[in-house]
Fold these 2 entries.
Entry 1:
Amino acid sequence: MALNAEQAERLGQLLSTHSDRISQRWSEVAAAPLKGRLTVAEAARHTGELQAQLRSALLAGATGVDSVHSAELRALLTELSRSRARMGFTASETATSVFALKTALYEAADVEKGDDAALRDYVAWSALIDELGLFTFEAYSRAREEIITAQGEQLLELSTPVVKLWEGVVAVPLVGTLDSARAQVVMERLLEALVDTGSPYAIIDITGVPAVDTQVAQHVLKTVMAARLMGAECIISGIRPQIAQTIVTLGIEFGDIVTKASLADALRHAVQRRNADQRAVKREA
Amino acid sequence: MDRLPILKIGSVLLVSIQIDMQDQMALQLQEDLGQRIVDTGCKGVIIDITGLDIVDSFVGRTLSTIASISRVLDAETIVVGMRPAVAITLVELGLSLEGIRTALNVERGLELLARSTEPDTADDLELFGDPETASS
Amino acid sequence: MTTSEATDRQVQAISSDEDVVRVRQLVRTAAVAAKLSLVDQTKVVTAASELARNTLVYGGGGSAEVCRVLNGSRHGVRIVFTDSGPGIADVELALTDGYTSGTGMGLGLSGARRLVDEFHLDTAVGAGTTVAVVKWAR
């Protein structure tokens, strides 16, 4: 709790009586560091909403950012931080919009000409505004984290296309370094593609993968085992000599998994197997 | 106790598991299927688990047992429609479903049965003469 | 156990086959609410199924407490299985792949451990068994 009840009430009243003057000054000071990236009108709308919400929170009895009466104020601050983060403003620029209220209050309350009581009030209000600013900062960094996570996921999706090569054959050409997270995504998407296309053969082409470690090799092996459980066969193609060496050195058992030198060889193998399956069915039918 | 329905389509028995089974229900299925194989003389069984959102070691073991029982009764069991998330989980769990044949969907399962349940070709039958043409 | 806030705590007694199904459903609901990926949901529900059955078969019944947990910005699901059964004499052995004291495939405990992110086993002979597991959203 930043304030006592009387200080909160006095701030609420000040925000009401000098409403126009404060909102004018607040939006001015807040807009200054944004250097035209946000229109004055927009900045004014944001500070205006904050002012209205802060006033109603205080008059309802809020004494700090954690008060039950501040729930809507917190929601508004979070929303503001999110939209600023998405628009590319820095955390300081975002928090400054809140801190600008200090200047507006200092002038509106006429602290310079006031007595000790006025100064004490101002110090307490400042503490409240600091709380609000810190809250904004936290919300901003959470929003940034979410954006980064979402972008990471989008990148993963883009970097692992699963393509249908032939009737009954899907392939995933892997390019670039495979880390554990990406290997996991590849595995899931490949298995999904088997179901969606009803393909009993899958080719994992690792021509574009510069190196594998134990974990990645394990993921590939698990994919092959999972595909078998679902009733599909995997073929691994494009294993470079260095990777073959790593696999053997690490003691990873590839067992009876079919490996082919190139994607073309793997496709030929899969199509031949597929045709043989269908001939067998026709003969019996 | 609810029982899972076993459908007979041509010479194939089809079970589609659509609900989160209690253990007892899985054991009941194991019993019922054995009986139906003997009653119908079917040579193929397809168990569709598209509707199962998890397969734990108990269900996995029951499926293995069903496959073994049907093999003893001269019928082939194919488990079809396992979801990717279930397959990944089973691999992590360390369950390999030893002795179970699988296919992506019912259609592929039927193909697999067609390939494996009748290894005798028509040529072999001719040695004995076709009983139907002989009698007519 | 990781310091974390727990919400939506629910307790399910485990004394029959049906209860094992109920535990699975509770865990599924919690996993969806914690925004776990489909694969992670499947893993944690499967682990819960194994452990609930252990509680029923080897612990002679008990309970499962399911709750959602939050650690920083990471969501997760925590399940605590408690029974007052005979306990486990050799924990190392019980966690070995293929070990079984009953009719299972011997994958119950060790398999469930591989499916979750955190696994705590607390047991003593004659004093029952408590297994706490957590699965975090990726």
Entry 2:
Amino acid sequence: MRQITVISGKGGTGKTTLVASLAALAKGKALIADCDVDAPDLHLLLKPDLRETREFFGLPLARLDRSLCTDCGECEDLCPSKAIRQGEIDSLLCSGCGVCRLVCPSEAIEMVERLSGHAYISDTVYGPLVDASLLPGEETSGKLVAMVREMAREEAKAHGLDLILIDGSPGIGCPVIASLTGVDLALVVTEPTISGVHDLERILSVADHFGVKSLVCINKYDLNLEMAKRIEDICGEGALAGLIPFDPAAVKSIVDGRPLVELGGAAAEAISEIWDRLKEEGFA
Amino acid sequence: MILSIASGKGGTGKTLVATSLAHSLGKAVLADCDVEEPNSYLFFPELVEGESRTVYMTIPQVDQERCTRCGVCSDFCAFHALAVLPQEVLLFPELCHGCGGCIIACPEKAISAGSRPIGTVKKAKAGEVDLVWGELNLGEPMSTPLIKEVKEEVSGSTILIDCPPGTACPVIEAVRGSDFCLLVTEPTPFGLHDLDLAVSVLDRLEIPSGVVVNKSGSGDDAIYGYCRDKGLPILLEIPMSRGIAEIYSRGQIFAREMPEWQDCFRELFEKIGEMVR
């Protein structure tokens, strides 16, 4: 089974637009997974029919039984997240580490399950989709990404699909690492801006750190040709997957809720070329 | 006032707004809490770098001689960062959240507090603008402790916080304690969907918020109906313009290159000041 994760470092460079189009080009041969669990948008383009919902339990939550509490203050002093104030536990601050329960001399604290989000399996005309949503303000997005990837593998196997297309999240931290480990290719989408260049260099190093091969595409490359050239120099010819021109059809695709390749145009064509390249190189 | 600039969706223009606000106000502290991909300092090429310091996280250090492999530490660890093998206790440092519970739990007192570096906090000055940012080490998953440290370094009467995208723990750490949060969005279904997620997080944190619509005129107008229904004020609109995108791409501050916007940013800040009061 091949797995491709689309990432970017910088947010808003066009990850989801690209993934939706690649999914359409795969013509039912790929399982699609949205691992941007913080802000999942892929479903807005793929119009899924929900088949199954699973609950996601993140780290546990401390619960204090006031009737047993002697107000000794031990838990308050030792809570590394400073989540306890005057016998009240702030669920947004509690990381679920369990130190309070450990140090409480009167066994007034227990750790309880915390529902932190949901993961979904759906059908789309482009193939099955696994995605998820984190409840507002919940932590452990990396753990939810791991759950989505596990479900994606199961689902791909069940459908006899040997490609998983993963939409990653921006950044280089915990959820990104969780969506990157063990994949065959990191397809990095960047833009020719000073932020894009800076963030690209960091995400390429992170992919390299985890031993994942990267290919880069420059979205809206014609916005600043000088920066685009700088990016080409950074990645070298072998690592460049393609150049996507600025095209108002990209916004139209989001507004219409359809993959960009279905609208046609210059950007759609460039994405089709990237897809051909991925096939040629044996990634898809 | 502490004003954070967040978005939910990435790439909507947080840094464009934060740098333009800092430049227009003239005197401000701009703290970049997007420690995974800090960009705001790139827009101040004239900056003079100040001090920088490495940020460490607490991790357990196991005295393997004293350890009896009883397994209490690994049973306790909610993050599965410790594995007890027949010959030693193995630590997975990237999983450790530094709570220190294993140190307390160990019946043999075989665990003490060690540390490992996770990133750097940097400071610089660009005229009257004080810049502070964090830079997460490459390959490091844990960004929240570094965001906390960036905020520790910040003081002053006008503090602008450039937040990371998303709605999970790094965003919460960045916006916590703000007097107001400016949500930068774009008028597309993606922008709207992620704005709604960000609004629920801010509601849960009880932080008042308002909206900046960037690239206005480019998508659809569902965002306006949403803001009306939610009672969210739209405080500024920046039109979709290739010119503005080009200024940004070169690493220039939008309000510096188009100075007619400086009044708009100052008014925006004043308006927020009144709303907070």
